[in-house]
What does this fold into?
Amino acid sequence: MAMKRIAILLTLCLLSNSVQASDDPSEIYGFWATEDNGRIEIRPCANNVGTLCGIIHDADTDAASLKRNGHVLLEEFIYSGDRSWKKGLIHDPEGGGTYNGKLYLLDKDTVKLKGCAWIFCGSKIWTRIHEEESRMR
It folds into this structure.
């Protein structure tokens, strides 16, 4: 009888873990804080259904921030399952370059952005901005 209870508890634990790690592509939508305190809105692309885009929403009022505000930073990322998006483009608003990119939703509040130019790659970690934090910025 004890073994049966243990088996039931293990099954319930496994089921609860699989529910927590959902595979919903819209789970990434929202506002994200970059490592340098930038603010990016990740949402569906307006001109290409089924793809993901990222728009810069800087709260700073300096000239450089105002110039970047509204700039498309991430474009046409395709959902590839398992909380990841690939074949996207990353546009550098300051240098003007465009790079191949991938996005990974590590958990509900953490995104990893990976960009590559030829064989040289780099990555950044962004943190979700929750509704309360968004109003304070």
About this structure: The chain has one domain: 27-136. The chain has a mean pLDDT of 81. Helices lie at 2-20, 63-68, 131-136. Residues 27-136 form a domain with the Lipocalin fold (CATH 2.40.128.520).
